[in-house]
Amino acid sequence: MKVLLTGAAGQLGQALQASTPAEISLIATCRNGGDGRIALDLADANACQAVVQEHSPDWVLNAGAYTAVDQAESEPELANAVNAEAPEAFAVALKAIGGRLLQISTDFVFNGAQGWPYQPDQTKTPLNVYGASKADGEDAILRVFKDEARAHILRTSWMMSPVGNNFALTMLRLHRERETFGVVSDQLGCPSSTINLASACWQIIKLASQGNLPTVMHWSDAGAASWYDLSVAVGELGEELGLLNTPALVHPIQTSDYPTPATRPSYSLLDCSGTRKALQLNGEHWRKALKTVLWSNAQQARATH
Q: Is 279 part of any domain?
């Protein structure tokens, strides 16, 4: 089976490459190419169609995205090109050759106004440009494929990875550099380890040909937390793993104390129960997954020194 992966140099892309099943021939792409990856600019819809036409993959796994949430407020055209027009271009090209699409989406398609986990079939109500662009990408895919069961959308939240720029690694650095700092405590959600998310992606591709997979699915690690809870856990786990001498003192702050250009949803929990059942995956508590992320980051750091 041939899978064309976008965003291969990103956090999820690297996890997907590291865990590619033996039966899959992976065509890895990223914006700048290099390291055996094909250069592909997701802001160029024509290039997105052309790469599908050239390689005729069985699947496009679209893990690439414009993810600069705050910057998207001042770059809506670019965010829309990457997050909405590229998925539509992939869908059109794949429809023509009989291929399939797995689109990675986000909890930010919801506004966070409800106090219980979001179901995959709920109406999308994004609060910011980034969320709106991802929602438009979802809609474009569904519009192209209509009732054909050849596209799947996997929404995830609060991505954490052993590599790149993400909240977990930022908190680890702050624990090392500072004695105290504040973190928002009134936004609730759940992190998603890229290690576990990659496993879910490959399971979708494995099981999709057997039929009966939902078109829209949700995936995160299990449980719930605030950003404050996560930052405290990073300190505790960092000390436990020997990555820190003494964790910093973290104090909770309100969203209003830390204004950002883009409005964030105050509640981002996704109901993943149907996805776990469909994919035959139990999931893992976020704290255990976070420990693996921090440990893996330390191992990679040691390997490069």
A: no
